[in-house]
């Protein structure tokens, strides 16, 4: 579909990064939008993704079935999944994107990988290692290697890690921060008993969340409210919660002029991005698939994540995940326009 020269021009990466700071002042009311429209990539077959998005698929190189690319159920993960899926399509692989937004807890994602329901998902190495029973650190290389070791025998491989990372971020409104002089997570300890904390369903069982907040910071919230990402944003905007666990690259933090509290006791581990892929798929396609994924990973930066999140969360108009992913690949020289 021809979306017009003006829109393509706006999406160019230099424009995204340049517009980010100024446009945030105009986007204070914007929040996460999970209802994306369909997009077309103009090749021979099309697979339908969750939420109405579509991905086109070309003939795959000999050696395997379509590669099922999945994501967690939040914007950044969806965009990353589209980046990897589109790169594979352009390299000639057939891709199935019908399993996007599969869910957030790894109790859903990991069994889906192991069973072959999905083949690939962009992972966050610290959270993955925590789920696998390991102890991540702030060192990305050390955490990634520990993750690979923990995955041995599971039929899942963790590929190269990106420089890009997104850490968990404790966020409060400007009003609450000013009222209680909150600048660090440690500052919450004295007032947390009176506050409502919006966090993922799995928070009570995660070291980076309720367990670590209690053990490392002495923070015990009066109420822990289990919410998905979009509901956390909306609830903080509407005052239904007082504190939210968001992500450090989320555009909505700056757009709403919220305060991201400093992790002054270094609870959060390295969360660099790396594709988790079924080894059966890697074996079927060989180095061609691995190399296509590694080329993408090598180009990802944290600033890219912020710009892409802004495009789909806070821009006016908000952009489609697939369009943003494709334009990023073009601007990095990984695919042709």
Largest sheet: 5 strands, mixed
CATH fold call of the largest domain? D-Maltodextrin-Binding Protein, domain 2
| Helix and strand run | HHEEEHEHEHHEEHEHEHEHEEHHHH
- 3D shape: globular
The tally of structural domains comes to: 2
Helix content: 40-55%
Question: Taking strands numbered 1, 2, ... along the chain, how are they ordered across the largest sheet?
Answer: 9-8-10-7-11
**Which parts are unreliable, with pLDDT below 50 for 5 consecutive residues or more?**
1-60
The structure class reads alpha/beta
CATH hierarchy, class of the largest domain: Alpha Beta
SS element count, helices:
14
Question: What's the alpha carbon Rg, rounded to whole Å?
Answer: 20 Å
The overall pLDDT, averaged over residues, is 85
Q: Which band does the percent of strand residues land in?
A: 15-25%
CATH homologous superfamily annotation of the largest domain: Periplasmic binding protein-like II
By CATH, the architecture of the largest domain is named 3-Layer(aba) Sandwich
Number of strands: 12
Kindly report how far apart the N and C termini lie: 13 Å
Describe the structure.
This protein is of the alpha/beta class and 337 residues long. Helices cover 42% and strands 15% of the residues. It contains 14 helices and 12 strands. The strands form 4 sheets. It has a 5-stranded mixed sheet with strand order 9-8-10-7-11. α2 (13-24) packs across α13, α3 (75-90) packs across α12 (287-299) and α3 (75-90) crosses α14 (321-331). The longest helix is centred in the first third of the chain and has 16 residues, at 75-90.
């Amino acid at each position: 579909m021809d979306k017009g020269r003006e829109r393509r021009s706006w999406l160019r990466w230099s424009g995204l990064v340049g517009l980010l700071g100024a446009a945030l002042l105009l986007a204070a009311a914007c929040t996460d939008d999970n209802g994306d429209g369909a997009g077309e990539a103009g090749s021979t077959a099309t697979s339908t993704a969750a939420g109405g998005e579509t991905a086109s698929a070309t003939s795959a190189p000999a050696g395997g079935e379509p590669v099922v690319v999945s994501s967690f159920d939040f914007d950044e993960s969806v965009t990353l999944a589209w980046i990897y899926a589109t790169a594979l399509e352009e390299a000639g692989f057939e891709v199935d994107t019908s399993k996007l937004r599969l869910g957030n807890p790894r109790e859903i994602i990991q069994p889906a990988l192991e069973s072959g329901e999905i083949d690939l998902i962009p992972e966050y190495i610290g959270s993955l290692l925590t789920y696998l029973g390991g102890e991540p650190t702030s060192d990305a290389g050390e955490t990634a290697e520990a993750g690979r070791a923990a995955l041995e025998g599971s039929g899942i491989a963790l590929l190269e890690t990106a420089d890009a990372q997104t850490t968990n971020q404790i966020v409060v409104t400007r009003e609450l921060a000013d009222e209680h002089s909150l600048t660090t997570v440690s500052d919450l300890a004295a007032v947390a008993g009176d506050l409502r904390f919006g966090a993922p369903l799995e928070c009570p069982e995660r070291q980076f969340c309720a367990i670590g907040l209690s053990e490392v910071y002495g923070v015990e919230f009066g109420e822990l409210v289990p919410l998905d990402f979009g509901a956390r944003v909306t609830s903080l905007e509407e005052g239904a919660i007082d504190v939210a666990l968001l992500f450090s690259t989320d555009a909505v933090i700056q757009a709403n002029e919220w305060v991201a509290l400093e992790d002054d006791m270094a609870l959060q581990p390295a969360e660099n991005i790396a594709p988790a892929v079924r080894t059966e798929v890697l074996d079927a396609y060989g180095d061609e698939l691995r190399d296509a994924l590694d080329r993408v990973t090598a180009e990802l930066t944290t600033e890219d994540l912020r710009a892409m999140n802004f495009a789909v969360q806070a821009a006016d108009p908000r952009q489609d995940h697939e369009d943003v992913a494709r334009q990023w690949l073009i601007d990095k020289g990984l695919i042709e326009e």
